[in-house]
Design brief:
seven-stranded mixed β-sheet, 32% helix, globular
Length: 164
Amino acid sequence: MTDVQIRRLVPGDGGRYREIRLKALAESPEAFAATYTVEAAFTAERWEERLAGGVTTLVAAVDGADAGLVAVMPGGAEHPRRAHLVAMWVDPAARGRGVGGLLVDAALSRAREMDATEVELWVVDGNEPAIALYKSRGFTPTGVRGTLPSDPSVGESHFLLADL
């Protein structure tokens, strides 16, 4: 049985956060609004600042090695009871082992703690495993479409979990 631990990154974990985030951006550049080049240039202080803000960053460790990441951020003034699930990634070596589901479940739990009643996310077109995972947790497509900020040639779709 695989041992999977989900843990919230906190100030002081900046180096760990940098390592897993850059690994995600390098491995799956087509899945993120951010780019490896931009984030690789962040200072150690910037990584720490990201962990000290209102965004909750969760990491999955599989058998002791970091293998997944997700973040939850509060909605803005327009949607104060909505949370955003962002930066979701699972290392290819850990895919198909339930890690993604555990990360999404932990993110949804955190959204509830933030008093959110709904959670939204964007997913890149064609990422069928991610779409299946989100649908299995109750997310539905809203019909809103956009393009990936890091590569406007890539389409993405908006999903919403309306009854958290």
